[in-house]
TrEMBL record:
Its EC number is 3.1.1.-. Pfam families: COesterase. The keyword Amino-acid biosynthesis does not apply. Belongs to the type-B carboxylesterase/lipase family. Residues 4-324, 365-479 form the Carboxylesterase type B domain. This is Carboxylic ester hydrolase. The lineage of its organism: Bacteria, Bacillati, Actinomycetota, Actinomycetes, Kitasatosporales. Keywords: Hydrolase. It comes from the Bacteria.
Amino acid sequence: MHVTVSTTAGRVRGRRGEVVTAFMGVPYAAAPFGPRRLRPPEPPEPWTGVRDAFVPGPSAPQPGYLPAMASLLEEAVEPGEDCLSVNVWTPAPGRTGGRLPVMVWIHGGAFRNGAGSLPSYDGARLAAEGVVCVTLNYRLGAEGFLLLPDGTSNLGLLDQIAALEWVRDNIAGFGGDPDNVTVFGQSAGAISITALLTMPRARGLFRRAVTQSGAGHHSHPEDIARRVTERLAALAGAEPTREGLAAVPPERLVAADGALGRDIAQATDPGQWGESAGGGTTVLPVVDGTTLPERPIDALAGGAGRDIDLLTGTTSDEFRLFLVPLGIGPRITDEVLHGFLAGFGLDPVEARGTYAAAHPGATPGDLLSAAMSDHAYRIPALRVAEARAAHGADTFVYEFARPSPVLDGALGACHMAEIGFVFGNLSDPLAGPDAPRELSDALRGAWVSFARTGRPDGDGGPGGTLPPWPPYADRRLVMRWGDGALRTHADPGAATRQLWERLRHPLPSGAHAAGSRP
């Protein structure tokens, strides 16, 4: 059965299931190519009649994953120019008085891969719990995150804001409450959301946020952003201007971005590339002083976003997703490990001993993974919670600890391991066979409860009543999922956390150390 809903650009026809109706590939902005290439998003072209919304729109141009990772991660559908679209799942289509909570998903993929239409992000199970679920695409790589000489930057973030404006203007027709919007996202999506918390253009567009494995440190100051643009343009054989880059076919920019990642990975001076040192990312949100006035963690420390409810967290073994499939772990010696630890600003002997005590029997590769997980994910998330607590803003913190059984359990509770459980889609590649449905029900219930009430333990959810989940605050309380009875733990991993006591802090107010990595 089909259902029709009106939007500001025209009417769309969705497909109704037993409980939920899905509207796929609805444009929220015009195709960002041709004369609109490398420019801020513009409203979609209106249409007459009723537009079928049965299949997702094209994904943004992207390289896909390395062969060693491809079996573990879902690849986006065929890229195309008309890539700025949303997908909507709703239990109450056409009920403008439905006033259901709205959950808007911003996907990850290192700012170079991904799409809102991946199977793991299917929002039907979330919508069946009584929310309107929206997923979106945004521009990636060079198309979305270069700093151009005329000051244009953060086009991918502006796309996300345009999608949230579409939600504000249209979601009531799908049964959602435009005044009760929660943005949730993982990795690059969570980094994006942390930036949105501090962006003037995003104010008032959402009330709550969930950031999974991404926080507020990962951005580029202007000097590094200019270096990224200039080097990427050179690799693409173009002038580093809007006109020069817009003349390059998208696939050549994608290839140049990949080449830049290899350049960054081989750089001998890590400070040359700031938070992209190592090559895991190339482009990042740009602190341009206009669209993104400050590095997000610094803005949060100054009080930005304190009126928005926040749930944040990480997985226990984030970095194993990157070390294990590529076979890097066995090649890590103690000498290499000490070099990395010193590069982070840690005392390598003390840090190695502390991580080894926390991970008995671990190899140097295992210890590197634990330290990298802390540097890139856990410590930045805790710095966000600490910064908000200083302004009286509650933050609920979690750790997802259920190990993935994939690759004989070698991945542990790695980056992305929680996503299928949040959405209730246990065919996710990292969930593995016989994934516990009750864990998914409880986790999904907490996310839905947070979207509805601002507290993850507010109404129990489909898995039954959750135990009390107080905010992080002075006791450093963290809810651990998937490793036994569900409960909060006070300062889990305290010994390794304390190694970073002087590191990864927000800059003092007014201080702008270009390219610094405190």
